[in-house]
Amino acid sequence: MPRARYYALALALALTPAQLGALSVARGLTQALASPVAGLLGDAWHRGRIIAAGTLAWAGASLAFGLCVDYPQARLAASAPQPSAAAARGPAALTALPTTGRRWRSRRCPARASRS
């Protein structure tokens, strides 16, 4: 979560600095644990569908986080759905980039272009 949002979040939900830290740690830890699983899914299934599903899930989870009115709700939203959805779209999107065209490969690696 960007730093600029901490102040607004603290005001809106009347959070202490410790509670903000707990939200940040919960989000980061969940995303770190979910990213390898999402990377494996990206290798096994169609990346475009994983990116689309992850983006839609992330949008829904962000909406749910925005509707939170107290700390327990925010903690639940920050620790499960939002970072998991962000993790689902991240690795698949990053691995989809290098494989998007013949022109890119031929400029980057002349030996590979001669094999194509």
Task: Give keywords.
7 helices, mainly alpha, 0% strand, 116 residues
Would you give an account of this structure?
With 116 residues, this protein is mainly alpha-helical. The chain has one domain. The longest helix is centred in the first third of the chain and has 28 residues. It starts with a helix and ends with a helix. The mean pLDDT is 75.
Question: TL;DR?
Answer:
The chain has helices at residues 3-13, 17-44, 47-66, 71-79, 81-96, 102-108, 110-115.
Structural class: mainly alpha
Work out the helicity level. over 70%
Radius of gyration: 19 Å
N-to-C CA distance: 43 Å
Shape: elongated
Q: How many strands appear in the DSSP assignment?
A: 0
Order of helices and strands: HHHHHHH
Biggest sheet layout: none
Mean pLDDT rating: 75
> What kind of oligomer do you see?
single chain
What is the helix tally? 7
